[in-house]
UniProtKB/TrEMBL annotation:
<dbReference type="InterPro" id="IPR001307">
    <property type="entry name" value="Thiosulphate_STrfase_CS"/>
</dbReference>
<dbReference type="Pfam" id="PF00581">
    <property type="entry name" value="Rhodanese"/>
</dbReference>
<dbReference type="InterPro" id="IPR036873">
    <property type="entry name" value="Rhodanese-like_dom_sf"/>
</dbReference>
<dbReference type="GO" id="GO:0016784">
    <property type="term" value="F:3-mercaptopyruvate sulfurtransferase activity"/>
</dbReference>
<keyword id="KW-0963">Cytoplasm</keyword>
<keyword id="KW-0808">Transferase</keyword>
<dbReference type="InterPro" id="IPR001763">
    <property type="entry name" value="Rhodanese-like_dom"/>
</dbReference>
<protein>
    <recommendedName>
        <fullName>3-mercaptopyruvate sulfurtransferase</fullName>
        <ecNumber>2.8.1.2</ecNumber>
    </recommendedName>
</protein>
<dbReference type="GO" id="GO:0004792">
    <property type="term" value="F:thiosulfate-cyanide sulfurtransferase activity"/>
</dbReference>
<keyword id="KW-0677">Repeat</keyword>
<dbReference type="InterPro" id="IPR045078">
    <property type="entry name" value="TST/MPST-like"/>
</dbReference>
<dbReference type="GO" id="GO:0005737">
    <property type="term" value="C:cytoplasm"/>
</dbReference>
<feature type="domain" description="Rhodanese">
    <location>
        <begin position="214"/>
        <end position="329"/>
    </location>
</feature>
<feature type="domain" description="Rhodanese">
    <location>
        <begin position="67"/>
        <end position="184"/>
    </location>
</feature>
Amino acid sequence: MGAEEEGLDLSLRHSGARVARTRNPFIHHLCRAIDSGLALRAPRNDKERPMTPDPLVSTEWLAAHINDANLKVLDASFKLPGVLPLPKDDYLAAHLPGAVFFDVDAVSDHSNPLPHMYPSAEQFGRDVGNLGIGNADTVVIYDAGGWVAAPRAWWMFLAFGHGNVRILNGGLKKWRAEGRPVESGEVKPKPATFKASYDAKRVRSMQQLVANVESNKEQVIDARAADRFEGRAPEPRAGIRSGHIPGARNVPYNLLFDAATGTMKPLDDLRAAFTGAGVKLDAPIVTSCGSGVSAGVLTLALYRLGITDTALYDGSWSEWGQAGGPPVATGPA
């Protein structure tokens, strides 16, 4: 798992008997968790948030488990409008063995004119079931082109009640760089039954964000590039104003991963990116971006820091930035 353990001694992979003998309750808990296959992270200090399972899995781990009966792999790649080839075409050309394509635009509310808004629990369950995923399955999600969309799909699964979901650290890029096998063509899985339940606490609406501009109860962090956040660059979607939500902070999502390896940066670097942007990690947080996709990268990074109770603004700038919409701020945060 490499850097995911954040400094933990790998010698702690004890047998069950040795775990049982330890008199240190922290080590006992730690070894039990590591033996279960999940990398754990230390909290910022012992008075802060408890350790949580790391949502990332390594390419080594996935290679060892990819043929497990209850493990399902999803390619959730996404691109901005007009960027070719289409993500589905990339998937058809090369994908992880057995991976099924998760189309963020298809698994969305088709009655809403905004892009890829969250569907109902009934629709999510139906769509995910058609991908061959049941409630007992472990889901591993990856991106073909970077970190943009896998975290969005990961957060959707959490929001719809499926906690057994992970993200492949480094995605297809790292997998292929290591010489691991890929397949072409479409995988057509046997449909399964997936029952979803929606957790509204994980998602925010524009109405809630408008009220928050006045109350300032939650910090808003925008994942877009600085020139878009500051209003110096046009938005990729027609008819959308430039700028940001008043009071928002800016942490461009690409600052959180290593472009060379495609892996997420160490925890200290993630923490520095947020605190350097003026984010208070002990206060409530909502993430935002252009259309609710790359905001998931911020959500993932915060989750890895033990901040698991954030929310994602689903409509993001594609909703807020519409002509005649709420007030817009420009310039640096």
